[in-house]
Amino acid sequence: MLSTDNDILSAAESWRRAGRRVALATVIETWGSAPRPVGSHLVVDEDGGFLGSVSGGCVEGAVITEGLDAIVDGRPRVVEFGVADETAWRVGLSCGGRIRVFVEPVL
Amino acid sequence: MNLEILAILNAERAARRAAILITDVDDGTQRVVREAEIATDPLAEDLARRLASGKSGLGEAAGRPLFFTVQAPPVRLVVIGAVHISQALCPMAAVLDLSVTVIDPRTAFATPERFPGIDLVPEWPDDALSVHGAPLDRYCAVAALTHDPKIDDLALAAALRAECFYVGALGSRKTHAARVARLTEAGFDGAQIGRIAAPIGLNIGAVSPAEIALAILAQIVAAQRAPRLGSAA
Questions:
Q1: Measured between alpha carbons, how far apart are the two ends of chain A, in Å?
Q2: What are the extents of the domains in chain B?
Q3: Alpha-carbon distance B26 to nearest alpha carbon in chain A (angstroms)
């Protein structure tokens, strides 16, 4: 079964209550043909286990890394991915779109 | 995000109530506004507009950049009639992540063997959808598929009163004309009755039960996503 944004917030809560450290990523802005709509979520735990999608797969790895950093330093951050971004040459959005993602630890 | 805020969001969703999470994108501070609290919130007008559109998005208040996460309750599909089309419809609706209830007072139709694992209610629609059962709300889609006015009309009346975002009824144009007459007699006006999709489903020339189920689900998705149509998003 595909996970939905509903499942993801439920998972974030149950993972946290089970003692896992987790971070939540939310797409807050898109330009061009971004694959996942604004409001899409991804939850990641301290071991890199994740549920959900913010880009249909293109930049998930980089978002997970940001999530792990947020778990460690306890601070929220905004990260941007797209063709205009140097990072995109490595992780890239093949659709040519750009997205901005809010990544926060669940405390 | 604090665990308490996350717990409120999950509890509101479980109770089928909308909520909006407001995040200050610069400093990460957050608060939740429950549906019932929107009218008295300082951002009432903005929040009401966002809830109506169902879309999350960026905004601003008092010079702060804010992100509004609009959380509408999950869509529930209520199928009236444990019929052949419903048997095709249920697994397809599950893939679309709709939570499905099938209501049919005819116990010969409403059997777990025909609907394994489905929330099946062998009662009349007015009982099943009363406050003692599972009442409809505007985040529900209702598909009346029995072909029997005694059963379908009860559900259609309940769906129109609850302002369900989608109401569809199986039957030919002739059948529907008779239905319109009955609902008018029952006190519904033209605008209310006009909300019923009939004949049910997008017109894709569907023939088999599975094809009709697909046409119904496509029409439900179209109704659900209508606010997105014609926008840049």
A1: 28
A2: 3-71, 76-225
A3: 8
Enter the CATH code of domain B76-225: 3.40.50.720
Q: Does B134 touch chain A (CB under 8 A)?
A: no
Closest in B10, B23, B27 to A10, CB measured? B10
Q: Which domain holds residue A94?
A: 5-106
CB contact under 8 A, A13 and B57: no
* Pick from A6, A12, A38: CB nearest B57: A38
pLDDT digit string, tens, across residues A23-43: 999 999 998 777 788 999 999
The tens digit of pLDDT for each residue in B97-137 reads 899 999 999 999 999 999 999 999 999 999 999 887 789 99
Q: Which of B167, B177, B169, B154 is nearest to B199 (CA)?
A: B169
Chain B residues 94-123 within an 8 A CB cutoff of chain A? 94-95, 97
- Nearest residue on chain B to A37, judged by CA atoms? B233
Q: What is the ipTM of this complex?
A: 0.85
Place of tokens 């199986």: B170
Domain total in chain A: 1
DSSP class of B75: P
pLDDT tens, position by position, B14-54: 888 999 999 999 999 999 999 999 999 999 999 999 998 88
Instruction: Report the residue from B10, B55, B69 with minimal CB separation from A13.
Output: B10
Chain-centroid distance, C-alpha A39: 11
Q: Which of B181, B174, B134 is nearest to B158 (CA)?
A: B134
